[in-house]
Amino acid sequence: AQKVTQAQTEISVVEKEDVTLDCVYETRDTTYYLFWYKQPPSGELVFLIRRNSFDEQNEISGRYSWNFQKSTSSFNFTITASQVVDSAVYFCALSEAGGGSYIPTFGRGTSLIVHP
Amino acid sequence: DGGITQSPKYLFRKEGQNVTLSCEQNLNHDAMYWYRQDPGQGLRLIYYSQIVNDFQKGDIAEGYSVSREKKESFPLTVTSAQKNPTAFYLCASSNPSGDSTDTQYFGPGTRLTVL
Fold first, then answer.
1. pLDDT for position B102
2. What pLDDT score does A101 carry?
3. What are the contacts of A5-9 at 24+ separation with CB within 8 A?
4. Which residues from A are below 8 Å from B when comparing CB atoms?
């Protein structure tokens, strides 16, 4: 069974600090997909990134970067030079290709608070 | 603009009443989903539908019902049998036939409060 663990319940930083949100996953499939979503106070989940299990290259998008390491079953998310607008709950998710339904399992989320 | 709409944004219900939450998408996605979110518990799957006129129970389907008569619509009814319905409800859709077969896109959510 697939499982996603986000051990950090809440992180508090001051603006301009770098912050890393951890995500550890469990799966028996060799083909799977990993996701990050952002949920601002408005409530809507915003899709940030999708990664398949065969692509371990790290990705950078502006101040956001993702580190995928199959050896440690982790898909960590780093925000560089954090801003107040980054304050949100961030969810990591995993879907397995083998099941056919492509329904992701979500972690419990990490609440990020960025203070001015 | 393409997207997912949910209405209403806030909903209040008296105990013992059924209530229906609306979810509409114009993304031409085949699959639609309903999730429930409680504080500190992440997202839990209620029901999903991968094609019109077909739907499947998720992890916490008891006390809920759905229909999928049209591709763009997937309403959720919270029945009086749901013992603790106060929560934030999120609708999502995905396109299994596309390149990113499992990427879900979410609506703005409906916050249901039982009085």
1. 74
2. 65
3. A5/A107, A6/A90, A6/A91, A6/A92, A6/A107, A6/A108, A6/A109, A6/A110, A8/A110, A9/A108, A9/A110, A9/A111, A9/B40
4. 9, 33, 35, 37, 42-47, 50, 91, 95, 101-104, 106-109
